Amino acid sequence: MATVTLEHVSKVYPNGLKAVSDLNLELKDGEFLVLVGPSGCGKTTALRMVAGLEDISDGTIRIGDRVVNDITPQERDIAMVFQNYALYPHMTVAENIGFSLKLHRAPKSEIAERVAEVAKILGLEEHLSRKPAQLSGGQRQRVAMGRAIVRHPAVFLMDEPLSNLDAKLRVQMRAEVARLQRRLKVSTLYVTHDQTEAMTMGDRVAVLKDGVLQQLGRPQEIYTHPANLFVAGFIGSPAMNVYEGALSEAGDEIKLGSQSFVLPASWAASDLLAPYRGKRIVVGVRPEDLPDAAQAGQPSGGQRLVGQIELVEELGSEKFVHFRIDAPRVQAHTAAAPGEDLGALGKGEIGAAVLSEGVARVAPSSKIRAGDQASFTLDVERLYLFDEDTSEAIRGPDS
Amino acid sequence: MAASAGASRSAGQKPRPVRRALLYLGVILTALITLFPFFWILRTSLESDNQVAQGVGGKNGIIPGHLGFGSYVTDLTTQHFARPLLNSAVVALATTIVTIIVASLAGYALARLHIRGAGAILGFILLAGFFPVLAMIGPLFLLLRHLNFLDNIYPLIIVYLVYTLPISTWLLKNFFEQIPIELEEAALVDGASRLQTLRKVVVPVALPGVFTAGILSFILAWNDFAFAVSFLRNTQHFTAPLDIVTLGQSAFQVFYNRIDAAVVIITIPIAALVLIAQRRIISGLTAGSFR
Amino acid sequence: MSTTIAPAPGQPARARRRSPGKLDARQRGDRRLGYLLVAPSLILLLAVTAYPLVYNIWNSFHFVNLSYAGLPHNFVGAKNYTAMAKSAEFRAAMVRTLAFTAVTVVADLVLALVLAVMLNAKFRGRGLLRAAVLIPWAVPTVVSATLWKTMFDPRAGFVDYLLGFIHKGWATITWVNASTWKSWFVIFVADSWKNIPFVALILLAGLQVIPSEVYEAARIDGATSWQAFRRITLPLLKPALVVAAVFRTLQAFFVFDVIYILTGGGPGTSTETLSFLNFQTFITNTDFGYGGAISVVLVVIALLIAAGYVRLLRPETA
After folding, report:
1. Residue contact B5–A70, C-beta within 8 A
2. In a mutagenesis test of the B interface, which of C150, C204, C242 is the best target, namely the one with the most B β-carbons within 10 Å?
3. Tens digit of each residue's pLDDT (9 = 90 or more) over B230-264
4. Residue of C nearest to B263 (CA)
5. What is the CATH number of the domain that holds A208?
């Protein structure tokens, strides 16, 4: 059974830097688990600890039932695909793929057979006798994968394998890698900083920040129920619009700059929102939840968010509308530690003339233009609310 | 990498602490083999004539009982070591200056100016560095004799170029190649001529490379022995390396303290130069190779 | 499918605007300037290498001996060369030189490789050790030769002092000029001590080009340190090894300074190498005809050595 379990795993460097703090994770058999987060969040360090390339400062790592803390990489029955591929420059593609088999003294015929099999799966047959320097980036990436596959290991470890490819190739390879994993059914731990890769490829996604696990769950879960402001801002593109707003004393209205939005009665009565009555609250709304109110099909009586349009980006399939409203924006990516002030301007008055940006995704037929003032339908059910001090989520859509 | 929490073991691999110990053993051994001889020279140079005659042992152990700078004084006065030192300095300095100028021009041309046959030209320059020096001595001797320049240190300046030009040109060419071409293009767009670009943009940026080439050239020129011993006759005209060989030898005794004092004198500037520029030298020599 | 090969790390991306044949005025001007700029180097080097070589070739076919001031420099055909081939002295020098070169190059390459691997590892004071190791290479041969002459002197040296502790009788061994083998040993120590650092530097450069990730991949593939060294480090180090070998071979084959200073060719003539013989012929015997012949042979050998190693490098780039 090829599972990987991390229990209270930490990595502290001699200079005191905590790369990974108390990480608990379980990779199930055959699962594709993605570790995602910004640079320096500890995802690569965690992966390398599973590989045995970094020592573990604290905690236990198990592969299957075996504790592997003190076991060398050679003996862990893992395979790894590196970001820069790390192909052996002086060996041919065939030799690169077959190297580990050769080290384990497999008979030549068996090596040739398995290499050919892998080459077929990855479409590398024509390139078997070429050296890495003669290959394109995409081909090299496939050789790196081939080297991992040929060993039929218990676990695949992948360290940002698609980062060095150009955009179009990346999209193509994303699908190929995912397809491959599904076909081979090997447990895979995949590291990336690209949230799109995480969302499209992973069975489950683990979001990390500064060495701490923020949330672990299925992609859909993380999208609709982010545990905190950081996850909310990190997942989804373009990023969620996050502002500093306020809840009315009665708990029935949210003020966003000079605009207010009526909340359903059930919310006013709920315990969840009670502590925030009359206080500041962080409000998030995704660009995809701000359709153009002037479009056909939008409810005529709904609440509207009004903004000053700065720029319209045409994508063909949709438009990204950049607008400004007079509510202070909150930086989701640098969500503060508990107690730290989130507000862009400190504890000033709400609505003091601050203009912040936001992005809305509207249909291609929308007539919004830069310079206009425009309205977006705001369905309060689609709002994400966060605690200003702890940045934890209070509620999200479908709660 | 942080030290392992426990011993990691696998077939054929020693546990980490053992490898670490072996490494440090090797480091210490290397340091000893490299530096102890210098210590010994220093020690011997501080002995007196009598102590040298006595030999090593007893009171005259690894660190002798009496130490003094007598040999140094003798070298610089009665043994007339100062003059050869000056000769060496003059020649090495002059060679360095000529080398830097000539090699910079050639290096830049080879790196940037798309000369047809650049590869062959560089190949020839490098090949000159492989030439057996001794093979040139005869004809050069005859030539200098014909021109009445034998026993004169100045022709050495040109002769030493065979040591310094190949490596300096190669080094500077690599340096120039590493400078982003956009810098020069910006200068050209701003209206500078090639030579102006070279002077005002390229050379200042390549100064570290020029500095390294200069230091290497100085060391190579200073160190020559073969040409010096072939062309120079009068002790007044000797270069320092040449002088050391005859210094301190009498019919009856070899004064190792005096010889070694001279060696120390000649080593200190070289060692200083190396320590100052070692990182530059290493990176300069290895830049652009083995791609 | 288009092959996009990424430029090797560290290499500048140079825009090569080359249209075959036609050059614009600026490029033509550049080219002219280029020839002008390389001219000084070429002229100076030619003066110090090609000129002596040509002169040597000329002399080798004539009788040119300054000791016989009155005698004219007649054409003597291949006499100098035949004399050289028949000369026992010459053949002996050739054998000695070849033997010394073979032993030294092999020993130095192995030791330098060990040193390079050591200098590549991470440890405190690495920069200091790298600097320290450069000093033997940087000092004049006079210094290294004299230094080891001192060290091996029975009275003033450390070697006999140390040996004396092991065995009383060993405290007074004479090394230099006492016996052929002992003399060669001292020469070997002095020459290698000075030159191994340079060889190690070249190998170190080669080691540093190997990305450390490749070693990690090898570990994951199951390689032990020795396997990684044999199958990854050594093959990738081949270009560096060849370059290092060329330098060291040429240097060892033409060794002169150390011999002159340490043994003066002795005891007797048993440490005379080809270069030493060459020097003696020119300077002591003032025979520039015979000396010219020897020099020509030396140059030919140098070219052969260089060419041989270049050939070793070729198949890689085919």
Report:
1. yes
2. C150
3. 999 888 889 888 888 888 666 667 788 888 888 99
4. C143
5. 3.40.50.300
